Amino acid sequence: MFNNEINMSVNIAGVEWKNPVTTASGTFGSGIEYSDFVDLNALGAVTTKGVSNVPWEGNQTPRIAETTSGMLNAIGLQNPGVDVFIERDLAFLKEFDTNIIVNVCGRTERDYCEVVEKLADNDVDMLEINISCPNVSEGGITFGQNCDSVESITKAVKKYAKQPIIMKLSPNVSNIGDIARAAEAGGADAVSLINTLTGSKIDIHRRKFELANKTGGLSGPAIKPIAIRMVYEVAKAVNIPIIGMGGIMNAEDAIEFILAGASAVAVGTANFTNQRATLEVIAGIYDYMKKYNVKDINELIGCVE
Predict the structure, then answer these.
(1) Residues 6+ apart with CB under 8 A from 41
(2) Mean pLDDT, consecutive 10-residue segments, the chain of 305 residues?
(3) Catalytic annotation, pick one of 105, 113, 133, 147
(4) Is residue 133 annotated as a catalytic residue, yes or no?
(5) For the domain that residue 199 is a member of, what is the CATH number?
(6) Is the pTM above the cut of 0.85?
């Protein structure tokens, strides 16, 4: 049981979270697959898999490969489209007492805006705009690597959004601080980072790439030091909240992100090896606060200089 004298709630762009833990998009479905293992009511938020304006088939298989301390994925944002999502997934999520964050993907600026417009009057708490996926041939990462593009697409979706907008940033850039400032200039209410790093793996016996796509997004513990560094840089660059992610496997990892400047964290790849990872992270953060007599989680956010 959590002690009410310890405050774990955070406010992200005007949305109150009961604790600073959500799921990373693409690693938790829409919660349906995990609801037998995880009490979704316990999470600060559930972040859904990417949702597009029309159904996407995704990339050819094989599209998953294990690596040292991580994994490569080239799923390609496969999803049934926003209409099915609203009728099936969103209807399911509304049964729970948790914030709903919908990850939005697209190939063109108009694609993103169509999804945002359709979700505007639905019971959704926040929108995460995925401009950083390295596994699609159009849109995705191409929007997230140029400051002008980031600012432009942020302004575009803000015209249609009734919920706070989180811009999901790519680590595959030369200066993450500049990209974050561009998102803030475009009107972003928050940013999330990092998405996966682009990588490849070759089967030396078959002498072929292990992924049909040749490249994929690297996630897992291997990328955490890079993610921590980038979260710290962005925290110094912008004045909007940060949701940190990238290799969080336990509470200690999550606390690192918070100390670096993240107001909340997202657990991703860990969900594949431990279905209860999110709950263990929440409990571990509470135990840390109790051990060090921290009464309010907000005292820890960005306290490392």
Answers:
(1) 96, 97, 98
(2) 86 98 95 94 97 93 95 93 95 97 93 96 96 56 78 95 96 94 98 96 97 95 98 98 98 98 98 97 97 97 94
(3) 133
(4) yes
(5) 3.20.20.70
(6) yes
